[in-house]
Amino acid sequence: MMASNYNAKEEDGHQPAAIGHGGAGTVKNKKPDNTAFKQQRLPAWQPILTAGTVLPAFFVIGLIFIPIGIGLFVTSNNIKELEIDYTGGDMSSPCYNCSQSYSWNSTKPCTCSVPFSLDQPFESNVFMYYGLSNFYQNHRRYVKSRDDSQLNGDKASLKSPSKECEPYRTSDEKPIAPCGAIANSLFNDTLELYYIDPNGSRTAIPLVKKGIAWWTDKHVKFRNPGGNDNLTVVFQGTSKPVNWRKSVYELDPSDPDNNGFINEDFIVWMRTAALPTFRKLYRIIHKKPNMTPTLPLGQYILEVTYNYPVRSFEGRKRMILSTISWMGGKNPFLGIAYITVGSVCFFLGIVLLIIHHKYGNRNHSADIPS
Amino acid sequence: MYSLERPVQGQSSCPKDRLGRKRRTVVSSLTEDEELTEILKSYCSNKVTTTKYSFLSFIPKNLFEQLHRFANIYFIFLAALNFVPVVNAFQPEISIIPILLVLAVTAVKDLWEDYRKHKSDKFINGLVCEIYSRKRQMYVDQRWQDVHVGDFVRLSCNEIIPADMLLLYSSDPHGVCYIETANLDGETNLKQRQVVRDLPRQGSELTPENFHSRIECENPNNDLSRFRGFMEYPSKARVGLHNNNLLLRSCTIRNTETVIGIVVYAGHETKAMKNNNGPRYKRSKLERRLNVDVLWSVVLLVIMCLTAAIGHGLWLRNLKDNSFLIPDTTSPALSGFYLFWTMIIVLQVLIPISLYVSIEIVKLCQIFFIQNDVDFYNEYMDSRIQCRALNITEDLGQIQYVFSDKTGTLTENKMVFRRCTIAGVEYPHEENGEKSKYIFLHNIFHQGDASMELTYIVDFFMALAICNTVVVSSPNQPRHVSRTPLKSLEDIKMLFQRFGLPRFSTLSPPHTTESPRSFTRRLFSRGKAASFTPRLDGVPGEDGDQGYEEEGDGLENSNGGEGPPSEPGADELIYEAESPDEAALVHAARAYRCTLQGRSLERLLVELPGMGSLAVRLLHILPFDSTRKRMSVVVRHPLTNQVVVYTKGADSVIMDLAESPKGAEQSDGRQGHIREQTQKHLDNYAREGLRTLCIAKKVQTSTEYEIWLKRHAFAETSIENREELLLESAQRLETNLTLLGATGIEDRLQEEVPETIEALQRAGVKVWVLTGDKQETAINIACACKLLRTTDQLLTSSSSCLVSLQEACKALLLELRAEVERGEAAEGTSGFTLVVDGRTLDFALQEDLKGDFLELSRRCRAVVCCRSTPLQKSHVVQLVRDQLRVMTLAIGDGANDVSMIQVADVGIGISGQEGMQAVMSSDFAISRFKHLRKLLLVHGHWCYTRLANMILYFFYKNVMYVNLLFWYQFFCGFSGSVMTNSWVLIFFNLLFTSAPPLLYGILDKDVSADTLIKLPELYKSGQNSKAYLPSTFWLTMLDALYQSLVCFFIPYFAYAGSDADMLSFGSPINASALLIILLHQVIESRTLTWLHVLVLVGSALFYFSFTLVFSVVCVTCSPPTNPLGVDKLQMSQPLFYGVCALTTVLALLPRFLFHALRNSISPSDTLKAALMDQLNPDNYCRRMQHWNQTQAQSKARGLIINVEDLDIKIPDFILPKELKECRAATGSVLS
Questions:
Q1: What is the rounded distance in angstroms from the CA atom of residue B1154 to the CA atom of residue B956?
Q2: Chain A contact for B478, CB < 8 A?
Q3: Where is this region: Disordered (chain B) (predicted)?
Q4: Residue-wise pLDDT tens digits, B710-739
């Protein structure tokens, strides 16, 4: 449309009489349409921000945010959370020995037991996490080092993984399945929880290992290569990641629905954490059907099969037990932030009210332009 | 319809002139001579190709061209960088998207344009004309593209000329033909062309076979008004060729049945094609400012990348063992270096490259709105505003100086013949009531001199009628030159008997006893023409008035059927003149029965009262030029059979030339008297604002004429220095003239000019008038259009005397300055207007006086430069523009304004009466001066604020978004990771947030048009670049920084330590960034229409639906940031919304508050006006009055002292006495 307007003169080149002297000839009328749009007269709302007009907004925000903040804060406080650092950097720590002796190449598992006690019973479902610190799962090279097609069960990628996996693409001339640095560094500590009865006997707490991964990951994104139910056959001709002790098809031989690429621990690990200090869901302790708390108060023992070395990058390992609310895990920040912002808005509302009274009238009387 | 000529950018189909000759030789293409045929073949064919690309070359060539743009190179550099494995940030294919998109959009645009050109080329090349074919011995139809140099082309009336050709034959018996050059320059008046002189008549039509002459002419050039060469006959006789013989391509043949010409230039070598330049490209002030800030962005980018690079290096060094985590073994320093480039890719958005594309789109839309403004529509001419420069719309909002031409710009340029003075007697033609005002001179002539006076009068009107280049045509016979057959002697006799008028030669005493004026009256009483009986009653000039008024309206039907019955066709004559002055004079002459009836090359047909049609042999026309400032015709007088020279020109020139012939003692006295009186009248005319022209004549003896003729013929035929020789020749002839009289032509002010000028001045725009007119006229017009107020003090500096040299000028300026300073000190305001004339200007523009002149002019409210040449005009504009560093606008309508229009930052052409040259060189073309008001105050203001705000918003948007990625680097070991899917990242700028700012730039409206017009003061905000100051830029940057901090760290703390993965962490950040960016715009925009709502809501919906759908369907795509399930899961969690809400509110809080506080505590004028817009009509009116009152009060404070001098006075206090006398004596050299 623009161009035709611009060239209007040009196109009339053959009827020049009409351009110079109005009367001659009848050319098309060039009068622009008198429409609201073309004349820029569209009905419009003109929001002019003055103390008077924004006042209500500040009060409203204040009035909404403060209750939300209080709600969030209370919710967050109701969440019970327990964190146990079992890195073993400390001489006094039960895992000190394991942490000192262990490296990726060790074949003998090292175990240690960390005792702890609960002051409060954990009601409802309890989520068990492992936490790592100073672990840059979000490093660009690390994040890239995976092959999503291979994990999706693509046979071609199984045999020849993506170049992004280098240097964990092949080992011994065989393709690595699953390839890449992320898979290679799979967290492989085993954590077990025991409740110490007052009488001293240990009861193992049932830890559910399914349902910890995202549904979409488990069912859509991760798939074992098809064609055969026997994963050993499927993964024949591939090599295990260099740091792994067992092959991918041996992750959970007991449950074919949790083995190979669709092993949930593996899936959870593959979802790289956003920040260098993170936790990942490890097990779920389901609420008991009767009225007893999921985890009653008392003494517990955390049995760790210490496989994962973190000393080399000065990392720390934690085990976290937490209940969750509708807002997720324990985090008082959001509640406090809401309360603060709400209060500030309310305060500013009052300031604006004063300003409005002081200057507001001026706008309606004199208009002395500067 | 297709345009005939367009800019030639494409490949030229002509072979290079291999021989590099200085001249071009053209012979008939029918020649047998092989060598000559070879020469002809070396010339361009007439096929025109303006397209840039061919089918095959499009992709490579277009790519190549696009790669010349800096922005694209940047994009490609980034894309290429991404293919380097060690630095790549995204998948290579993703980083190609932006560049592909930009290239594709541009390529489609180019392709479309080229296709249009191609279609139009095809159309033009396929036009048919008649070419002589040797084989068939006749003219056959050929396509234009098959026309070659040397071909004979036959054209009929109304056909378009296919190539530049030499006119060899015309069906007109006088060998002339008429062309209309509207296609070339928009001028619709007919121009006469004539057959090559002395061409042997070859029967009725030219036979191409017999044409053996050789034509030598210049090589192709782009000068439309010059053509030099000669034609050599087989007999070796040469005849000069000039512009009059050349038919230019794309002009139209009019009024001539058949013409034949030989092609000399074809295709791209024609003058029309050589004259086509592409659209103008100017860089606006805002864009220059913008580029500075883009450089700042680059600096910012480098700083951020360096920070990341150094950070990464340090981080890697501190990391003891990275082997199992990060498969990389390069040294920290090298990694840091690689990372620098990775970060440039990641943070590329910081450089707002898409801003340039957006600005172009926005400007196009702004132009669309300007062009569609119904207020710029001119009913009479059926024309809208033309925007010829597409990229300086916002400059319209920052104009500080307006330089205006007078004639045709402030005035109508519809010349109305008002008064004349003949032989020292004034004949006023004002309305009856005003007549008494004029003091009539007593008739100083004796009765015996009556015949002398009559001779003067007749000569005077003869001169008016014939001393011009007016072309006569009649509307009902468009195909022929109006030719009124000569009356037979009987007819003439009958005429005399019928009207009982004596012939001049036998003027009998009884008639002469009447007062000479009674004859004049009779002569002038054309209106009552039914009977030509002398009227003795009535006030002199009364009848003339009425007749005159009709003429004054520019109507052709002045005779109104009252003409002599023997000439029914006379009233249908149409005069087409090159300048409106000429037309006015011819019409005036006709109003007094001295009618120009026809014109041919050798003959003029004039009807004189009482004598009927007389054929006047036209010997020469010495056309008007700006050095001589006059034109002359040499004719053989039909009654006396003498050679008479009639000269018409600027008064200063003619008065100098009109020296009394030596030895003619008797007439000397009278001539002196006439000159004295005429000068007096001229001064009066000028004071009334009339344009003056002097008419003079000279009777040549035949010997004198013979001598002159010889030298003139030599000048005409010479190729070298022809112009100079002709000028000299003309000057030789135009001496010792006898002054006949002078005319005063009124040029009415255009409507609403005073209002417009007042509004501009209120808007803080300094208005200068630059005119070629005389000082008195200029002051008068300036006064009429309120440029000068009655209270203003006038400072005149006209050191027109030859003795006043530079020093005097300098002293003058200094004195004026001192005066102004005194005035300022006393009154506190500058009610001064400076009037400078051309000669003073010459001095003032010199290096050492420039500063003083500018200083002086800066203190004056208005400046009028009179008697200035086109060059001076452009010098003045340039001086002000460069020295004061202000935005200038030049507006004019004529060819003399072209240079000024081109020099100014914004050039505006008025499509008026004087052709299209000004329009052709302008950026905007309007039809009336009053349109300037809305163009500047409304559209300029809008365009500027819109664009400035949009640019700021773009910077804000990019910095805000890019910083989010930057903050993340602190938590991922400065590794260049991003927490967002790369597609979303690329699309964020390209799609999700691109439309709202565009709409903002196109439609935002801070104050309504009505208010902007009523309160011109609001324009000042644009002049001072209020919307886009460096401080505003940095404030915006700071705000962007704050917002990005909020937008990153609130999610950061909310998700710290949790099991959120990278993309889940990025999801709320991205979503709140989008909300912040969109809502930020809502806060910033002054108007929200349904379109805004649509686009804003649409953008948000687009983002959310895109990410949702993407997170569902994208299973293995886009590694390593595969979004499967992320956003779907996130958007089902309350935490996501909690974070988004808090982030958005907190991020926008400061700006929201800032606006509210500023608007409440110290609102800007613009805001106050916007507040007024929201009032109901009653309150609006009241407030408007109030505003204007306060304005007036603040102005009036300084003006009280000045009120006593209510009349404009021209204080000459500054001039030394002798200088003043000098000025009176010599007049100005320039006029």
A1: 16
A2: no
A3: 532-571
A4: 888 888 777 677 778 888 888 888 888 888
